[in-house]
Amino acid sequence: MDYKYRLLALDMDGTLLQDNHEISDETVKWIKEAVRRGIYVCLSTGRPFKDAYPYAKQLELMTPMVTVNGSEVWRAPYELHRRALLDSKLVKQMHELAVETGAWFWAYTVDRLYNDTHWIDDVEGQEWLKFGYTTEDDEVRHRILMSLQDMGGLEITNSSPYNLEINPMGVNKATGIRQVCELLGIEMSQVVAVGDSLNDLAVIQQAGLGVAMGNAQQTVKDEADLVVSSNNEDGIVEVIRDHILIEG
Fold it and tell me: Phi and psi at residue 186, in whole multiples of 5°?
């Protein structure tokens, strides 16, 4: 059967995963059915590979993956295709900003997670992928955002209304999915991208069909072609059943 869409790009937290961090049985069933019918399913997440892979394994996916908001693209599980690193000088500045504002922070190197309770002095000796801040204080978050914009060279998104996620400029889930398309020999117009936060916005805007979850941030809903049920109500099933597994 010839389908209009060939690739389903799925954000994980707040999209594929319910609030209990599990994939519902119904969603698992429909994803496996999509794969059986020749649809590529790609996890596209802010998580690092090691935190995303167990879910790919559960779904029996051997397809490419986009992790750390696009800073890493995997040709297949454990087979790295491309990696984009943050300038360690900027990481140093971002850490200083976190200390100065008192915001909780975390950062991924290629090897591990660092955060407020465990930092490293040798910032320049590490390969950094992503930096993040979390604070429910809107004023502090806004101040951090302004400072980050002044630094330049940074791609700034979020994965919740209370955080900021920072990747190298020009690196996001859309650039990641474009590379996946090249690996698979398909076009962005054949992609269905689903998400709930600002780190999903670029790929939702650029995909053939951009889908916001019912629990998505309003900006994401406004930019999406379609809004489905929430992550706790099998919104992904709706996407696959009603919009992908129909004859093109």
Answer: -125, 175
